[in-house]
């Protein structure tokens, strides 16, 4: 059984423990410490304290039953002119315009934290009172400007032990919030201050799937270092990304030769063509049917098997396509579609969101053939600086096409200097390492905001 690695703890004014430590440099140039002593494990008193820390409970959600927004008192950073507002998922659509504008100004884009995806996900997947939106507004001469947006999961007993948690539905692959590129550190500090104040009183914030070499992680680490907060990272891994430039596409000559042979064999069955769909709605329905015909349909995990997920995807794709931020490519043999790929983008960042293929043509590698064509087209266009594969670690297909890697990890961030974030992360990692029981796995993925 694979053992989960011990949590990584960013050095943010940690006292020097008597036990041995190993230091290294994080990809975002932040000195890190890996605790090797038993002190990293949660003590009884700490666990008792953690269990009584509450995040967003159902009692807190009572003020959202009318779908309204709730102001959280005085600004956390009066010197920065920031105002904090908490909205229910049902009221998030009222700020769709400012939210979309923030997505274009974010220090690190995240299509899965923007309004095009999050609003339908909140309304259809999360339910009316289970997710809220923490908004940070800055007063400008032209009117209030949204500078931070964090979807928050309202946890019960388990999540309360881990503080507040960024909500990341299973359709998404990143969990960092949108933060304005103008003075991101002040906005992040105000966000953490707001979470430790009433009504949350959260000791920490869990952020799933955060790019560790990106500007958001660097800004977060700078805030933690300056304010004495602690950050622990766990489930750290790398996944494939495509960066602009001639070195973006990495494929061995032998593999390329084999794909060429398969392509020629495929052409014997009929004319082969790759088309970038002009009718997004029609292409999306074709993609959904194609996915349902394969192994995902057999396992019951295809979009067509989940009405809510399908509705979210359909609205998201339609909304992104309306302002030119979505493409669907189809690989056809004659009139028959045998592979489809869905790519979305925002502010120079792209996401290779979904791919599906007809398993009757599996011996020709139609998914790889299409991914190769789409990759070449993206590199030729040159308008995206990076494309996230949205794939799991060690993916058998995309890892052989894309050379670059992006480190991602789940972060536990203390909202105050004395928050036991190392104990929290260590508790989760050690529970998984010691036990293969379904309960432990469920706890881990629930903290991450996933449902498997």
TrEMBL record:
<dbReference type="Pfam" id="PF13480">
    <property type="entry name" value="Acetyltransf_6"/>
</dbReference>
<feature type="domain" description="BioF2-like acetyltransferase">
    <location>
        <begin position="254"/>
        <end position="388"/>
    </location>
</feature>
<dbReference type="GO" id="GO:0016740">
    <property type="term" value="F:transferase activity"/>
</dbReference>
<dbReference type="InterPro" id="IPR038740">
    <property type="entry name" value="BioF2-like_GNAT_dom"/>
</dbReference>
<dbReference type="InterPro" id="IPR016181">
    <property type="entry name" value="Acyl_CoA_acyltransferase"/>
</dbReference>
<feature type="region of interest" description="Disordered">
    <location>
        <begin position="1"/>
        <end position="21"/>
    </location>
</feature>
<protein>
    <submittedName>
        <fullName>GNAT family N-acetyltransferase</fullName>
    </submittedName>
</protein>
<keyword id="KW-0808">Transferase</keyword>
């Amino acid at each position: 059984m694979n053992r989960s690695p011990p949590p990584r703890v960013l050095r943010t004014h940690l006292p020097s423990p008597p036990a041995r430590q190993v230091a290294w440099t994080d990809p975002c140039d932040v000195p890190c410490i890996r605790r090797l002593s038993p002190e990293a494990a949660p003590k009884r008193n700490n666990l008792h304290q953690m269990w009584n820390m509450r995040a967003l409970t159902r009692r807190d959600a009572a003020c959202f039953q009318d779908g309204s927004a709730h102001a959280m008192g005085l600004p956390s950073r009066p010197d920065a002119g920031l105002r904090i507002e908490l909205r229910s998922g049902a009221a998030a659509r009222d700020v769709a315009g400012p939210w979309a504008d923030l997505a274009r100004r974010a220090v690190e884009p995240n299509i899965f934290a923007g309004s095009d995806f999050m609003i339908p996900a909140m309304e259809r997947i999360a339910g009316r009172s289970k997710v809220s939106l923490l908004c940070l507004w800055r007063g400008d001469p032209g009117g209030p400007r949204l500078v931070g947006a964090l979807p928050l999961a309202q946890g019960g007993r388990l999540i309360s032990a881990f503080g507040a948690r960024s909500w990341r539905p299973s359709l998404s692959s990143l969990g960092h919030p949108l933060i304005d590129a103008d003075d991101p550190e002040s906005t992040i500090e105000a966000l953490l201050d707001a979470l430790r104040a009433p009504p949350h009183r959260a000791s920490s914030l869990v952020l799933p799937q955060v790019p560790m070499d990106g500007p958001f992680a660097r800004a977060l680490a700078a805030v933690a270092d300056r304010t004495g907060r602690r950050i622990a990272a766990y489930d750290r891994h790398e996944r494939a990304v495509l960066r602009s430039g001639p070195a973006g596409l990495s494929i061995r000559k032998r593999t390329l030769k084999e794909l060429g042979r398969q392509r020629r064999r495929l052409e014997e069955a009929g004319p082969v063509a790759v088309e970038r769909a002009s009718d997004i709605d029609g292409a999306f329905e074709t993609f959904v049917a194609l996915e349902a015909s394969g192994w995902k349909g057999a396992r019951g995990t295809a979009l067509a098997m989940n009405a809510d997920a399908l509705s979210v995807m359909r609205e998201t794709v339609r909304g992104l396509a309306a302002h030119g931020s979505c493409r669907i490519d189809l690989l056809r043999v004659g009139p028959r579609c045998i592979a489809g790929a869905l790519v979305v983008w925002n502010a120079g960042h792209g996401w290779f969101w979904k791919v599906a293929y007809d398993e009757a043509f599996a011996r020709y590698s139609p998914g790889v053939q299409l991914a190769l064509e789409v990759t070449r087209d993206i590199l030729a266009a040159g308008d995206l600086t990076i494309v996230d594969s949205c794939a799991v670690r060690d993916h058998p297909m995309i890892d052989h096409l894309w050379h670059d890697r992006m480190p991602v990890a789940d972060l536990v961030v203390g909202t105050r200097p004395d928050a036991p974030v190392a104990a929290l992360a260590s508790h989760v990692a050690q529970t998984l390492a010691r036990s293969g029981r379904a309960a432990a796995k469920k706890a881990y993925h629930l903290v991450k905001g996933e449902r498997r």
